[in-house]
Amino acid sequence: MRHAALVSAVVVTLVGLAIGVRNAEAAFPDRTIRIIVPFAPGGPIDAIARPLATTMQEILGATVVIENRSGAGGITGSESVASAAADGYTLLMTTGSHIGNKVFNSAQVRYDPLLGFTPVAGLIESNGIVLLARKEMPADSIATLNAYAKTQPNGLTYGHAGIGNISYIAGELLKVQAGMPLSGIPYRGTAAAMSDLVGGQVDLCFVGISGARSYVDNGQVKVIASTGAERAPVLPGVPTMREAGFPDFVVLGYIGLWAPRDTPKAVVTRLYDAVREALARPNIRQLLSTFGAATEATPPDEFARFLERDFATQQRWARELGVIPK
Questions:
Q1: Which of 42, 158, 242, 291 is the most exposed place for a label (fewest CB within 10 A)?
Q2: Which UniProt keywords are given for this protein, alphabetically ordered (predicted)?
């Protein structure tokens, strides 16, 4: 009898827990959702993250806030999400550096970017980033830039947002593939690097089109080349690295949304649906089109497969750059 009573009590408890979990998922969201952006405020990702959060808030009927948590090239903020509760109320919005940090800076990364998170949606896939130079740079092409760099005793400097960030990877690929003498200068985010580029404290910087447009339009910097497979529609006069003679120099930027590992599927679906609807809104579509970015959300399963392919691509780059053995 005691055994039967104990079994019954356990069953009742488990059923109660299951019902509680289902009720919590059905009620989601019923409190504030925090989206962690692992870079300093004012960068290109902020220009997209904040309007998107506002629109998601309208769709979900719950407060959605952006929290910038910079440090270690994006590792600090990503790590905080990896260790957060798997309930959908703490999310990560970041770039391909989520993968790049693990590939290029593995000693500092204590989480698995593929297995330690639940992909929610691919938000943006751009058709490349752009190489910018300080306004006074006496060069306007890769060829003339390389020639000028080789006349300088210490070569040229380029600003980047941390080892593993796309701005770092592109800079190192330029150094290796073009044989250009370059030294990387790390910053806490692209916004800080751009500030020094405009001020002439650094020579070059690879930046997403979203972060470059205003500086280019205002004549504050020179744009040298883009890294897409084709020219960016919003910058049709800017040649690609392929056109400059580097057929394998194709580096595409993207932004995604992740939840902690084991976040319930129903919660992930609710979040994805909100993202998909937000990206379909005219104001968001217009915003993204000015940045030269795609405007359709990538579903969780498809985004997960994309991330696996990107991991393999970044490993190939790391081998080319000598970061990991060939």
A1: 42
A2: Receptor
Domains and CATH numbers, the chain: 31-126+253-320 (3.40.190.150), 129-226 (3.40.190.10)
Residues 73 and 79: beta-carbon distance below 8 Å:
no
Place of tokens 């980033």: 129
pTM: 0.86
How far is the CA of 28 from the CAs of 60, 70, 270, 299, in angstroms?
Answer: 9, 28, 8, 19
Residue 159, helix vs strand vs coil: strand
- pLDDT value, residue 14: 43
> Which residues, including other chains, have CB under 8 Å from residue 255's CB and lie 6 or more apart?
45, 48, 93, 94, 95, 122, 123, 124
Whether the pLDDT of residue 10 is over 60: the answer is no
Record the tokens describing residue 123, joined without a space: 């938000």
Distance, in Å, from the CA atom of 271 to the CA atom of 301, rounded to the nearest integer, reads: 14
pLDDT at residue number 42: 83
Query: How many angstroms separate the CA atoms of 34 and 60, rounded?
Result: 13
Length of the chain in terms of residues written: 326
Confidence of residue 184 (pLDDT cuts 50, 70, 90): very high
Alpha-carbon distance 161 to 169, whole Å? 10
Mention every residue, 6+ apart, whose C-beta is less than 8 A from residue 121.
256, 257, 271, 272, 275, 276, 297, 298, 299, 300, 303
